[in-house]
Amino acid sequence: MLALYLRTPTLCTQEPSLYVSKSPCIAYDRLVLSEVRINATSIRDWPRHPHRGLLVDTSRHFVTVGGLLRILDAMSYSKLNVLHWHIVDDQSFPYYSERFPNLSDMGAYHWSAVYRPGDVQRVVHAARDRGIRVLPEFDVPGHTRSWGVAYPSLLTKCYVGNSMNGLGPMDPTNRQVYDMLKDLFAELRQVFPEKYFHVGGDEVDLSCWASNPQIEDYMLKNNISSTNQLHALFMNTTIPLLSAGTIPVVWQEVFDERVPLPNGTLVQVWISNSRDYLRNVLSSGHRVVYSTCWYLDHLKSGGDWGDFYACDPREVLRDSSLENDIIGGEACMWGEVVDDTNLATRVWPRAAAVAERLWSAAGGAAAAARHRLEEHACRLRRRGIPAQPPNGPGFCLV
Amino acid sequence: MLALYLRTPTLCTQEPSLYVSKSPCIAYDRLVLSEVRINATSIRDWPRHPHRGLLVDTSRHFVTVGGLLRILDAMSYSKLNVLHWHIVDDQSFPYYSERFPNLSDMGAYHWSAVYRPGDVQRVVHAARDRGIRVLPEFDVPGHTRSWGVAYPSLLTKCYVGNSMNGLGPMDPTNRQVYDMLKDLFAELRQVFPEKYFHVGGDEVDLSCWASNPQIEDYMLKNNISSTNQLHALFMNTTIPLLSAGTIPVVWQEVFDERVPLPNGTLVQVWISNSRDYLRNVLSSGHRVVYSTCWYLDHLKSGGDWGDFYACDPREVLRDSSLENDIIGGEACMWGEVVDDTNLATRVWPRAAAVAERLWSAAGGAAAAARHRLEEHACRLRRRGIPAQPPNGPGFCLV
Questions:
Q1: Which of A222, A361, B251, B253 is the most exposed place for a label (fewest CB within 10 A)?
Q2: ∠ at Cα B369 (B368, B372), nearest 5°?
């Protein structure tokens, strides 16, 4: 058995896991908050998947550092261990870069809606103290409109006929784009201690590239026959810019467009749910982080955690030789209609259903999970997390 | 013009409306919080519908008095003037009755989840001070399981074949039911100053009545040929038990089952949305409170206020001789998955879209309403109401 130490109301092991360098702390207040007092105990428990994540989007709406710390608390209470910080996107650029301060000076919603270096450190350190890794995402080349507020030349001019019609994805033919990304990545390597780095690569508006006469010329000259190939070229140029020792994480489109990906790359699957697709990614030597069925922004009257719980990517695969390369999954809280007011209530306890699916053995009756989730929602509330009622009528004594 | 007085940040008129006995106070911080300072002004504005309500269900989940007061604040900021307090239901009986204390002693979730007389008075007085009426609902004969915890004999024994299978709606053949309701109504008349009283009448499990041998006997002896008639008999016996001067409010089923209703009865329409149905209710001499399209418990990914805003019962009717008898509507926040944690965020600003539909002239472009709602959500947040983002990405400076 592992050596244990007890810190009310969490129980931590001394031994770090292979995947997480920090010792995992597990909420165990049933032991310490119950009437029974325990002198010593031994617990055998381990996670089925090493990557148990929650994506939080801080671009569509800004989330305060306090809001993020509350999310981290609840993640640790729910045995989630990766905060996927989708920090910037089209709508705003709230990350303050020391190297490129104009990005947030001009691209954030407001000067008060910016993560300064101290803010990022608070989040990173709070996560570390809870056994949670912070996986930063700077999504390129799409979802980058906010970068263009300060640096419009980074983005592609889209055309309708002969007239310009706004800015699209980053311009894959512009050398400055790659120079900037290289410098930014170097900075981010210092700021985020995580060896994984998410470069996005999803939902690129290829039609904008196709509409631009200069890009058309470039494609002709370089014998590039499709804009998909251009996307592949972009990712293929960008990924090597990551600092040494960094392992890339990409959305599935990057794999779909046949970009040669370095060994160990994590492919985040968010569209596909078929056995064939997963086999295809895994047999190409990549590992999968699964999110297709765990989008927390999809709402259903009366609740939907049962759908989240029923979804099991390793069961979809049903192929023992590959299934361990599905290293886990992430519940995704896209921020279009979520900010500090409703973030915590919308995430909790729904993400805890995903957390149990990722931690526990396959199967597990939903009826029993229902009771656990009811209890867990109330436990979260007692600890200050405003978890919404998961199961219909009831009462939680806070 | 009406005489005005100004109390930051609300503007109140001295003249009570015909329908609301309190002077309406209207949020007008655009005048008083803006850079422009105003010495005197004159405003012409009036509501299209006199009954602009929000139903809050405190039985499926208990809502604290603090939670209700916050709802009242936001209602006044949004020009809603009726809190329909669906106070008890199957799941719990949180109302403390001086005459029948066992109802909540045994039927509430917990002793701490009970509205004592002082609690009810706080809500009623806070509402009055904000120009809001409190319309209490004690739903009978269905939705009464919690009454049966203390008084099981009030409820009908349901049968499957020859064996009893739990308790159903109130027993319409039991004289004690009516004796108790009479006493309870007398108490409630003192507690709630409102002249309207909602007796429910929805979703009665008629099959339980049909399964009970004693009720079968009763129907035979009294020449009652259907359980619908039995429901009519129940409502027809119950409504006259209301204290003198009380005007009943009923869910539409009571009208549908042809219960003779006293003049002035409000029929709350929640299932039907057809022109013919509304004409039918109105031409029978009743008035309509409309809710069919304004159920806040129905969720839609990305938001749904546009659907609420597009719905206009008087436009459905398109019949000027009757349309004024649609006196208004109510947004309904059923409490199955809502408690203090997520009540305010789920209601606001969605209910404000209903409020504008009920206050303002017919029509109104959704695109313009979109801006007003964004601004209003931010205004609510500045005043301490955690209104969720209504329109997708954005930023509210609190």
A1: A361
A2: 95
User: Which residue among the candidates B187, B203, B315, B374 is catalytic per the annotation?
Assistant: B203
Interatomic CA distance for residues B289 and A256, integer angstroms:
54
Contact by Cβ (8 Å): B344, B66: no
- A376, A389 contact by CB (below 8 A): no
Gap between the Cα atoms of A158 and A211, Å rounded? 6
Q: Which of A20-34, B132-146, B224-238 has the lowest mean pLDDT?
A: A20-34
Which uninterrupted H or E stretch holds B329?
strand B326-333
Residue ranges with strand state E in A201-336? 247-251, 266-269, 287-290, 326-333
Q: Is B111 on the interface with A (CB under 8 A)?
A: no
> What stretch(es) of chain B map to CATH 3.20.20.80?
50-382
**Rounded distance between C-alpha atoms, residue B312 and residue B308, angstroms:** 9
Residue with structure tokens 């030349």? A153
Residues 6+ apart with CB under 8 A from A146: A59, A88, A89, A90, A91, A92, A93, A103, A107, A108
Mean per-residue pLDDT over chain A, rounded = 91
Homologous superfamily of the A50-382 domain (CATH): Glycosidases (3.20.20.80)
- Cβ partners under 8 Å of residue A129, min gap 6: none
Choose among A305, A302, A286, A303: nearest CA to A294: A305
Whether a cis peptide bond, with omega within 30° of 0, leads into A141 is yes
Partners of A220 in the β-ladder: none
DSSP letter (8 states) at residue A26:
E
Give dist(CA A22, CA A83) in Å, integer.
14
The closest of B136, B122, B139 to B68, measured between CA atoms, is B122
Bond into A94 cis (ω within 30)? no
Minimum-distance CB partner of A388 among B91, B337, B387: B337
Mutate to test the interface with A, among B89, B104, B295, B339 (most CBs of A within 10 A): B339
Residue B218 has a pLDDT of: 97
Locus of tokens 């409020």: B355
Q: Which residue of chain B comes nearest to A112, CA vs CA?
A: B397
> What pLDDT is recorded for position B268?
98
For B341, which of A109, A338, A381 is closest by C-beta distance?
A: A381
Verify whether residue A203 is a known catalytic residue: yes
Q: What H or E segment, with its residue span, contains residue B85? A: strand B82-86
**Local structure of B332: helix, strand or coil:** strand
User: B278 vs A25, which has greater pLDDT?
Assistant: B278
Distance, in Å, from the CA atom of A246 to the CA atom of B137, rounded to the nearest integer, reads 62
Cβ–Cβ contact B110 with A under 8 A: yes
Q: Which residue has the tokens 């015909």?
A: B18
B15: pLDDT strictly greater than 50: no
How many Å apart are CA B160 and CA B208, to the nearest integer?
A: 9
Q: What is the mean pLDDT of residues A363-379?
A: 95
- Could you give the percent of chain B with pLDDT greater than 90? 83
Name every residue whose Cβ is closer than 8 Å to that of residue A43 and which is 6 or more positions away in sequence: A4, A11, A28
Token pair belonging to B184: 């309870």
A336 CB within 8 Å of a chain B CB:
yes
Q: Is A363 on the interface with B (CB under 8 A)?
A: no
What pLDDT does B167 receive?
Answer: 97
The residues near A285 (Cβ < 8 Å, ≥ 6 apart) are: A263
Question: Quick check: A388 and A304 in contact, CB under 8 A?
Answer: no
- Among candidate residues A189, A217, A199, A183, the one with its CA nearest the CA of residue A259: A199
Please name the helix (run of DSSP H) or strand (run of DSSP E) that holds residue A381, with its range, or none. Answer: helix A366-382
With contact defined as beta carbons under 8 Å apart, do A110 and A171 qualify?
no
